[in-house]
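Predict structure. Input: CEP76/DRC7 peptidase-like domain-containing protein, 423 residues.
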Amino acid sequence: MNDESQRYSPTRFRVDLVDRLNYSRMASKRDVLRVDPEMDEWVQKHFPSMVIDDLDALTKKIQEALPRYYQVSVCTAESPTLRVLLDEFQSFSDKTASEMTHLGIAVRPAMGGLTQQALVVVGQRLHDFSPEALTEKKDEAFFSRCLHCKHPHIVRVSREQNSLGLECPECRRTYAVVAADSERKFRYVNEFLTGYAPPAVFAKDISRIYQLFTICSAVHGNCIYTRDPGVKKDATDAWQTSLETQRLGQGDCEDSAIYLCDWLISRGYNARVALGRYGDLGGHAWVVVKMNDVEYLLESTESAPDPRDPPLVSKVGARYVPEVLFDRFALYVRSTPGQSWRNSDGYFSGKLWTRIEPRSLNPSTEPLPVSKLTADSGKVDPSKMARTSKPSPAAAPFLELEDIPRDAAVWQMPLAVGAQTVK
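Output follows.
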């Protein structure tokens, strides 16, 4: 037996066992399992001193150390020799789920060196969440990490929704909102503000406040409110960029709000799109602007504002309840989740709103706490999963901004605002 052990090493056994597990998968046309260095290193490090008398306790220990895996299966076997030990895993190889992607293997002597024991851990390793992964992959679960409290967790998504928000299960704060465009490509919502700046020419003596209302009136006059065709009652629709909305001449509340906000930012205004609720009517999107320490609330779907009676947040904002704000570079969420909203609180307060950059949601290899697993389990504890919700009104790296899109139509519609005129 000692001679046999010297001729057939644990390293050779590991290689042969991987092949043995994959032969069965290839025969049934399933993807082969790959050795995960992180999992393999952990299993080899801890298996020599591991007590294996309760598989549920073992999987819980694996969960605590390597919980990036959505599903985990474990199998142990013991035999006088490593060659015979290979056959002990035959039935396990036939039963590994097709969703499993990676594995780790460890071997140790048992019974004072009279036998050999092996541990195989097979799991479904999750991809990191990103708009690109959501677009390209068919997965329904991803790995993510809260940008507020750094809590790692699983994100479950619904493919029926074109937009969704990610809420951390630990701190209960939203840390990302993504939406699909007309080509079904997902991006963070702030990336819909692409730097749109129509080549409008304003009179030299027009004031900033009149220019603000002129732009708002132009958006009202050139964007007919409409829901996306074919959108179900409970489904969220596709989002449009400003240039798409201008070309189509129509859009719903978030499309026209993006259209208006993008133009205002290009003209140097401190503007944000707000997603939230309007009274009892449900989800809505609007635009807020801060100028000279005064906050304005601009509706992109109703009548144009009257400069003689400007829509101040303190005056018209009582029925508007914002949940998320965004500009071109960042997302702004409530600093205290669940806090009641008063329109006097303000949309630009650093105490009330926390600024986060969704693109800082970089891939991570650190573990995340997922479900309490059994010896062969794919069930996930809801407390360890992000809450995904569709934003009420409804990629690539951050888009390179341009002052004027080459194919943007030149504004030719004369629009009078008070005594000022713009073409």
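Residues 363-380, 390-423 have pLDDT under 50 and may be disordered.
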